Amino acid sequence: MAIEAKEIEDLIRAQFPTASITITDLAGDGNHYAAEVIDESFRGKNRVQQQRAVYAALKTQMEGSNGQLHALALTTKAPETTD
Prior knowledge:
By secondary structure, this protein is α+β, with helices and mostly antiparallel strands. The termini are far apart.
């Protein structure tokens, strides 16, 4: 069972309402995606902490063999500052 890119974005957005989120279907099969999430809440956190927070938002869709989302290449970061 496939999942739509919009569904992934909605799940992430629920946790990170002001984030910049880009979802890409890597294989065209609705199972393998890449996501880039840029959010201020990531500032001061290491990459593992950032990615755990995003995966927690997607947990219900990634759990076990019944999860709709089978592969996600995840990039996270805080927004760049302009000084």
